[in-house]
Design brief:
By secondary structure, this protein is an alpha/beta fold. It contains 16 helices and 5 strands. A hairpin with a 5-residue loop joins strand 2 and strand 3.
Amino acid sequence: MAELSGLPVPTMDWGATDPIQAMKQFKALCTLMFKGPLKEKSEQEKVAYLQIWSGAEGIELVSTWSLSNTDQNKLETYWEKFEAYVAPKSNFRIARFKLRALKQQNDESIDSFVKRIRILAAECKFSNSNEQIVDTLIFGTCSRTIQSKLIQKDNSLTLDQALDIARTEEATQLQISDMTNTTVHALTNHRPNRSTSKPCLYCGTQHPPVRSSCPASGTTCSKCGKRNHWAIVCRSLPQPNPNNSNFKSQQTPGRRHRVHTLQAEDMIDTASISAGEPLIPHDVPKRPWHKLGIDLFYLRNENYLLLADYGSKFPIVKKLKTTSSREVINRLKEIFSEHGIPETLISDNGPQFSAAEFKEFAQEYGFDHTTSSPLYPQSNGFIERCVQTVKNIMKKCHDSRSDINMALLCLRTTPVSHDIPAPCMVLNNRLYKTNIPTASQTTHINWNPDSLESRQERQKSYHDKGAKDLSLLVPDQPVGNS
């Protein structure tokens, strides 16, 4: 059977719940074999192949037939006998019952649902199967909008028209869902947290988030002289003075504050901390693939590794079987063998990167491994932003049934800005070919990190508009309520 090397071998499932459909699939695959790689075989040889593929039950069934010498070498005779054998086992009324109870799954597309309907309808022996398919589509779809639009149509509604309406509505719902999810995500990230577990900005204590319940309401600050807040959270506090001999304490009704080394007015400004500090960006590398960021993310029951270059912004995504240090190291070795070893690798403090095995890997390959501040992912904000971008692209590709690899290719070939080339050009000094038309066919660039530094400076200026420097700390200074 050298002609069939690498091809799927047809097999007949005699114990299938739907033997007629199993026989149709078996016959279709055998017919392709006989018209393709076995085209030159004789009729007698094709009959032998058919008996082999039919399995032990098929061979036993053939032995019960009384065939003439002529019929023994005819394929058509065997197909007629096989089909007659499975026909009594199929009941069209059972198929009709299954068709009436057929429902679309929540994550199933219209085309997939209609395919299942067609398979069952073919066994129901309807005089007009298209009409029954339309009825099943109307009553079985999980979309109320599709049901409403199809029911409104008159008797002239055809199957093709019903499919066009259902597909259009399905695509519209996916787009609206994507827009809604994006909007909700943005609101969730920027909506202020009004949880009662946070200290009040006016008195520094915890109470219900109602202004009238604040004990500082109606009082006067002993430091700045303004009303409705206490000195402990006053934003006009000067630098702490250790030699200050004034030990007045702001009294809270029903509570007492003990002052140790400094007066309560000189305690650290917690409100200014929440306002945000000035941005401290990473240094721009002088060449591509000099400093890399790495992180793991989870999407649709799969774990992924994301590695991105600080200089070129080039992202690399690898699927992980597990999240162990060994698995991460193996994926990094594959990447380093293709692109080279960086000088610095920046990660968070996850167990994969804090393990002794990963430290040994860094020493063996000769790169510096730097971790971000614990519980402060903003210190590695570049890779966190890359994770969001890649996850959004993968989600949209899944929803629209698009090619994820092509989408990532387009991301790598898209210029970062008007003066910063595409990541692929900065990293590999050439433009990758994609299926998106481009106006320029430039194949060589001279990358200048000054453009990237200017971009970071602009981002820092925008961020620092709402930020302020923290006051300096001195020895023995309290940093909270005592």
